[in-house]
């Protein structure tokens, strides 16, 4: 495949071809199929790519398609493995864009999908594959695998049946994501597992997670919320897109300080895309408050998504929740401003009010939710810390201490202490 000159990729949404992605002199062009547009139930790939007969030029369609691919050093290593230029989105999608986020799958024009199958792994084989991931992200160029997920962290889409882990082959949909420890981030697996569990205990909708022991290492297993299984039927893909894709922002600009979306843009998008929007807006507000109070400074626009199901859009369950503030080597700046401040230590009550009003929220209601969360979160964190899975984990102690400090500071600054 790497030596072949490819002019077109068919873009499938679930089990139907929705359009064609072309590369012309290095520029991308996407066009919906006429047959797709004629269907009453036709849906757009993205809020940024509404249904229309005319093709979309590179500047409009590239953010969505580039947003399907891994980022940073992962992208560089995949490009080397596939002998493709790092900047060649089209070539990378042709190589690994089979099982992507949401319901999207890309195939070389004329290519027929292979039957769905699962390569079940023995424990030793799984350990070997995890060892390979740093050098071969997404297991790129492993025979028959075309797997892609956005982000800069090593991860692997897999199939999990409750006991066995396998690799999806052909047209099979992955059902879970395996996330090994991040080498430079102490206790990242337990950190994320704890933050996800705490969010769930707080009442937020989150992706289901559990910690697996693979050999002598912990690995986080995340159930994909963009997959669903009917009665006795194969797993189905549900469509989703992250906020950067929906706003037409390329992934390299995901941080606000680089020109990426701010919280106002996220709330505006949610109001435009969802009906009724009020419950979704409240969910996003609660997510913003939670991320701030647990010290998740990496909550950028690609860490929020829209999920499409039953003909409507809603805010997807939260994912990638990690307390980054406990690590001195990681940035103290939040990915998106609260009011006019990037640093939580500088956020006063007036900055919370500035954020709420700019996002079109009632300050009285926002303040009430902020106070309630700041009062409840420390006790919920301590209660969760007492469970067997977290009791003796130093990183969890660091997180709960930070949460107590941040909640106390917030209550004082809102004059409610």
- Radius of gyration in whole Å, from Cα? 21 Å
| Chain oligomer state | single chain
Q: Which range does the strand content fall in?
A: 15-25%
Mean pLDDT: 94
Residues in helix, %: 25-40%
Spatial strand arrangement across the major sheet: 5-7-6-8-10-9
* Low confidence ranges: 1-5
N/C terminus separation: 63 Å
Features:
417 residues, alpha+beta, 6-stranded antiparallel beta sheet, 4-stranded antiparallel beta sheet, 17 strands, disordered N terminus
Please give a quick description of this structure.
By secondary structure, this protein is of the alpha+beta class. The protein is 34% helix and 20% strand.
Task: Describe the 3D structure.
With about 425 residues, this protein is an alpha+beta fold. The longest helix has 23 residues. The protein is built from 12 helices and 17 strands.
List the helices and strands and how they pair.
Layout: E1 8-13, E2 16-24, E3 27-32, H1 34-37, H2 58-66, H3 72-82, H4 89-96, E4 104-108, E5 117-120, H5 123-132, E6 156-160, E7 165-169, E8 176-179, H6 188-202, E9 209-214, E10 217-223, E11 227-229, E12 235-237, E13 239-242, H7 243-247, H8 263-273, H9 278-294, E14 305-309, E15 312-315, E16 333-338, E17 341-343, H10 349-358, H11 363-385, H12 394-413
Antiparallel strand pairs: 1-2, 1-4, 2-3, 5-7, 6-7, 6-8, 8-10, 9-10, 11-12, 13-14, 14-15, 16-17
Helix pairs in contact: 6-11, 9-11, 11-12
